[in-house]
Amino acid sequence: MAMILSAFFSKFGELLLDLAKNEVEMLFGVPGEIKKLQNNLRKISKVLIDAERKRIDDEAVDDWLKELKDFMYDADDILDLCRIEADKRSEESSSNSSVQFSFPFLSAIRNLPVGHEIGTKIRELNQRLEEIWRWRSEFNLELASPDMQQVTSQISRKTSPVSEIDVVGSKIEEHIRSLVDSLIKDDRRANILVFAIVGAGGIGKTTLAKNIYNDQRIQDEFSVKKWVCVSEEFDEINLLKDIIGDAQNQSRSSLEPEVESSLRGKKLFLVLDDVWTEKVWRDLLCNTLKSCSAGSRILVTTRNEQIAKQMMAVNTHHVHKLSLEDSWSLLCKKVVLTGEEGEIQHLKDIGMEIVKKCDGLPLAIKAVAGVLCTKERTGRDWSGVLESTAWSTSGLPEEVKGALYLSYEDLPSYLKQCFIYCSLFPEDHKILMGTITKLWIAEGFVKAGGSSTMEETAEEYYRELIMRNLLQPCPDYFLTCQMHDLLHSLARYLARDESWVVSKVHEVGSSNGPMKLRRVFVSNVREVGTNGPMTEMADVLVTKDAVRTLMWQGSSMSEARMDDIFNVLSRLRVLEIQRLPDSLDNLLHLRYLNISCTSISAIPESIGNLRNLQFLEMCGCSNLSRLPNSIVNLHNLRSLNLFATKVVGMPAGIGRLQYLHILRGFMPQSNRAEGWCTVEELRSLSCLTNLLIQKMERISSSSEARAAQLRNKPKLRVLRLNCTPDLQPSEEEMTRIEEVFEELHPPPSVEELQSYNYFGREFPKWMAETSSSTSILFPNLRRLWLMDCKYCERLPYCGLLPNLEYLRISGFAASVIDVGPESSVGTSSTSSGCGRAAVDTSKYAFPRLRSLNIWNMRNWQEWHWDKETQAMPCLNYLLLHHCPKLMSLPEGLLLHATSLTKLKLCNSNSLTTVENLLSLKELDIRSAQKLKKVSDLPALTDLYVRRCPKLKVVENLQSLKMMTLEDYDMKSLPSYLLKRVQRGTKKRKRVQVAHLKKLKIYCSTELIRKICQRASPEWPTIQDIQEVRVYSKDRSVHVLYNKSPFSFTTNFNDATTISSSGMPSSSGGIGL
């Protein structure tokens, strides 16, 4: 319990210190009580750490901590009420107060009519705390100082928290290859076959399945690929929705035919991860998936081999524990950067003893590595981990003993409470960093230190939990994580009955433990009739008056029942809900309110009474068009998210919300007289870190924009300035928007800048700066979007931005035909005949740019970048999308972009050659009608060619391993692939087909027929390639060929197949 109590002790202790300094107990009529409360709290705080350790094994200590925590929750509520009342009185009478106090609200306390009531409650608190202190004497608790609140990730570990799939074990690559071979092998026993991966919890089943799922051969073989986390208490509706994608239906009876229809005739690869019962297959999916085409596969991961048998798996792979050496290798990988393992080799003897305790389980090893990476690399520190008593703590569920509990026990208290809070979400739930950090703040878990904001501190907490391997980043989702199911089990156990996750009907009312229920998460519980689970849940919640978090993602209930609930749940700090209760103003303690993506169309004026509200999330409320005027009374608001709503304006007074850090969807109006907020009110919002302004065209003048003083917002990191798309502006409006943007100069702190639908002809001077002062103006800018600037006649000069990593530009004016040294430091010329500015080529342009994306430059013809201009040394990805008149890639790109590994060209219909890119590894060309030559790409391994009808020369690609051709009009293999005798004296080096490991072709059925015939010109080429996959447009017809071991399979009716000697045989469509 210390993980929450220490935070409360710190917060409550600071208040009591201020109260004692100012002798406020006299105001409450309780002389000496506050100092007594302060002393009692100080004494108890010294035994919290020992009590937390002993609670696992000692039920009496656990009961004592429960009582203490109840006390602290009650104390926190009393403190909140005091602040709320004082805030109200301060607004009314602070100017008349003759006594001044240092604590913000104490000047108003003297006049509080509730002073006697508060004094009585303080006296009662003291009596309770003294009883708790006396009870403590029964347990022989040791004294210890509370741990310091310091984020350790800043000082401990070099490794990046970026997600990776950990591949360890001497035979893991072999296992991946073997399983993929089996999954794609032709086997017609049934349309859909089940394969299984079996092993203990934390042994690496999911890691192996992820590697298989991401294998290129799987990606190529199956037209539909799905990953579904099943878990022990799976929800049928959610599972069906995960398979179909974005489904609106809410019942099994309507979803099953929808799944069947969407997958009919398609070749499916479905991973069912963490299956606990065969019912998910036998009773739910078996019949539903029968419509899939032959060759479909299900890959199941499970701890129980019997489940694999009951699902009639045709192949079961057992994952075994790691050897000691492999365990040590994984530990090294997770503690230090790859290649730096030598830094801890002197600790190998201790390290081997540590991994022995992990029993060959990768999850346990990674958890311990998360502990070690916070320690000094000394024998003393590592021995401390080896000898920790946490290894042998009893009283825990067997599956979370040892390393997993050690990883929790090592956490400082501020991280313990954050880790446990994550268990409120269902197993396998994807947790957004931006959401969980706000929830931690709302619950009072985060205390900012120094110059850091609470948001920045919470983000550090998030990163440290990832660094410690207690949260796992989701590689396919930005700033999103999950908890491993065993770590989720540990956190759920530690939370006990304080948290209640409801995702199925039978779980309603299942929280009956001795602890008071504090947090509830409701997911997809659907009402049936008038006495269904929603009614039952309401009956339970009206008896749980201590709930602080309610996240309701299920169906709505009746208004009367909702009011019954919220009249009781007056202590809520966090609320996520589909519909607002009429009694909203009773939720005086509320910090976080999320109504995003709901049909709510109006917010009551009573929301202004929620003085403690910090986060108001309304993103995606498409029916919401107006905000209540009282929203300006929410003085503690830190985040206001209106993105993707239809709010037409903001009420005047938004500028009073001086703690706002995030304001997304600010909608300016020009008429303050009608009660609207203008952009000038942004001036006083000096704490902003993230700002999105919509409908910029509504800003009436440059003076109004200047008054916003964006340049004077020292913490602003993300700025997005959007105009309405598809406007038809007049000359006057174009001039005005240029003047407005000129005055909205971002501060030097900005890291991300986006502009959509800007309709000026010139960019503002602060963006068009050509001198070295650019690096001074925006030293921190890393990401820049300039989208659909359809009237701009020249590109901005951003080559000197010292830290720019990502640049995306799109949709500039038709007059932009010639892009020049603005890709470094100069200007561009246009059809209007503008000249070029001088270029300082002594500097690297774009010194850190990694990704360059250029879209919809429909008249762009020339990219001038000569060999003398050094630029983009770090560029590794270049996308040119719909630049149909660009004739060639610049010489400077070929010479200086030495880190370029991936190039994608879409609708580049005037480009004739791609050559001499020495570092390029992946080339993707789609619809280049005039492309004739691809050559001299010595590092290229992957080539994708789609609809390039004039491409005749593909040569000097000596590293090419994989090639994909897509053209459904293609009736024969292109000449650069065909293997035939060269005539004449001039010979070209064509594609070395013998070096190709894989060729994939999407083509006409006519070409498929030729590939199946030995006498065709295509067969000599095909037979020399290790693996060939050929598909018709709808993938209904295919050819699957392997050179060694030989196999040839096709379902083309007219085809002959190839025998093991490479000769055609008369049988059709059967794999050999």
TrEMBL record:
InterPro entries: Apaf_helical, LRR_dom_sf, LRR_R13L4/SHOC2-like, NB-ARC, P-loop_NTPase, RX-like_CC, Rx_N, WH-like_DNA-bd_sf
Domain Disease resistance R13L4/SHOC-2-like LRR: start-end pairs: 571-883
Keywords annotated in UniProt: ATP-binding, Leucine-rich repeat, Nucleotide-binding, Plant defense, Repeat
A Pfam family: Rx_N
Similarity comment: Belongs to the disease resistance NB-LRR family.
Source organism: Cocos nucifera
Ranges where the Disease resistance protein winged helix domain occurs: 424-491
Domain of life: Eukaryota
Protein name (record): Putative Disease resistance protein RGA2
Residue ranges constituting the Disease resistance N-terminal domain according to the UniProt record: 12-96
Residues in coiled coil: none
Molecular functions (GO terms): ADP binding; ATP binding
Residue ranges constituting the NB-ARC domain according to the UniProt record: 173-336
Biological process according to GO: defense response to bacterium; innate immune response-activating signaling pathway; plant-type hypersensitive response
